[in-house]
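re: the backbone from monday

yeah here it is again, tokenized this time
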């Protein structure tokens, strides 16, 4: 892992399609951009912000996500999520995450991720499915 730079940002976006609606993901009964879809987009932005600092066999895993979804977005609009690295404590990285649609802000919060060795983490997780 290279030295992670506080202040590094990344932005990602998605179009609100049927599969990203609350009614489709089970988080509500309306045809609006789902909170779980916003959370996933925020995590994607965080992954993109830290990616330049990772070695070949490293990745990050999410450890906490504290967000507020403050405004609804209809199907067809574009949603943007931005993550900014605000703190680094060893292998733990803290991000400020925000989301907006074409009209304005729709959410914000704090997200933490932890740097792990991809193969080691996957192998350890896979053993959970083996009953002895």
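seq for it, each position gets an aa:
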């Amino acid at each position: 892992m290279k030295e992670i730079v506080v202040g590094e940002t990344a932005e990602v976006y998605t179009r609100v399609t049927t599969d990203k609606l609350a009614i489709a993901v089970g988080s509500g009964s309306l045809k609006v951009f789902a909170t779980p879809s916003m959370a996933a987009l925020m995590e994607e932005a965080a992954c993109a912000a830290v990616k330049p600092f990772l070695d070949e066999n490293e990745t990050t895993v999410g450890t906490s996500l504290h967000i507020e979804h403050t405004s609804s977005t209809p199907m067809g609009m574009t949603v943007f999520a931005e993550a900014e690295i605000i703190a680094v404590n060893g292998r733990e990285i803290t991000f400020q995450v925000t989301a907006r649609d074409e009209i304005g802000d729709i959410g914000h919060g704090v997200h933490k991720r932890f740097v792990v060795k991809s193969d080691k983490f996957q192998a350890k997780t896979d053993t959970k499915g083996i009953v002895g």
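Residues 35-50 form the longest helix (16 residues). The chain has a mean pLDDT of 96.
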